[in-house]
Recover the amino acids of this structure.
């Protein structure tokens, strides 16, 4: 049985009280992940949400992603941050699989690589780059919070960008069977730069969108590539920011595509 601290609102008296001991944990301490699909893996305290090493952070999503993974798969983790889903994919695709992680922020990338080292991970290719609709250099903004870093005109520094179509072509590696995307508002750009990949290979996509306009455009792009969209928790697609997209609508892309879960945002 999993005790889900992340499910208790930290603004409530009980949630605040339960989290008090976490303040005593030294930053940088390496701890075992206590529960969930990554139980036993090693995690750096305060590198991200404490729920990561407690094993409860985005637990529903972790379990759903893990349920789609199989040995030998190739997985792309877009917006890898410090590596939670990279480690998850690495563990489940095994030594015959491969994970390609993309993270542009220097602080996050450094911790991502350390998480790979302390867990003796050998099946991950870590790319210090942002995925977008074109390749080049773009401003990147953190605003003091590296968990919320994103491409922005008023960025703190420049980062390298790449497209998934270009990356796949240049590296000549197997196409991904599953892609996780969480890039704080640039989700539509990621999909635009993966146009051929989506049409030709139809990987399963776990997508976190940020903002209604981006959400609407992402849904349009995925449906035009013949994807069926569902939320992670059974709500209507337009009511949430977490989507799983699977190939195989019954209507062709040319004819126009309907949602498996009705949506009014488009």
């Amino acid at each position: 049985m999993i005790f889900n601290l992340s499910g208790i609102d930290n603004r409530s008296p009980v949630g605040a009280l339960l989290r008090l001991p976490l303040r005593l944990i030294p930053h940088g301490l390496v701890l075992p992940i206590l529960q969930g699909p990554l139980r036993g893996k090693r995690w750096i305290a305060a590198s991200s949400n404490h729920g990561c090493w407690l094993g409860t952070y985005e637990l529903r999503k972790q379990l759903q992603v893990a349920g789609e993974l199989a040995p030998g798969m190739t997985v792309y983790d877009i917006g890898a941050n410090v590596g939670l889903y990279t480690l998850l994919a690495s563990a489940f695709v095994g030594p015959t699989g491969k994970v390609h992680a993309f993270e542009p922020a220097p602080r996050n990338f450094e911790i991502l690589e350390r998480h790979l080292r302390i867990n003796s991970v050998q099946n991950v290719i870590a790319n210090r780059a942002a995925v977008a609709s074109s390749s080049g250099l773009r401003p990147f903004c953190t605003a003091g919070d590296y968990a919320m870093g994103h491409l922005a005109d008023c960025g703190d520094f420049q980062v390298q960008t790449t497209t998934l179509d270009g990356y796949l072509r240049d590296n000549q590696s197997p196409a991904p069977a599953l892609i996780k995307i969480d890039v704080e508002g640039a989700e539509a750009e990621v999909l635009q730069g993966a146009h051929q990949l989506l049409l030709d290979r139809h990987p399963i996509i776990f997508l976190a969108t940020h903002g209604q306009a981006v959400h609407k455009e992402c849904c349009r792009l995925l449906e035009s590539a013949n994807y069926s969209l569902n939320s992670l928790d059974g709500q209507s697609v337009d009511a949430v920011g977490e989507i799983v997209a699977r190939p195989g609508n019954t209507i062709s892309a040319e004819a126009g595509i309907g949602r498996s879960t009705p949506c009014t945002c488009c």
Remarks:
- Residues 1-57 form one domain.
- The chain has two domains: 1-57, 59-247.
- Residues 106-118 form the longest helix (13 residues).
- The mean pLDDT is 85.
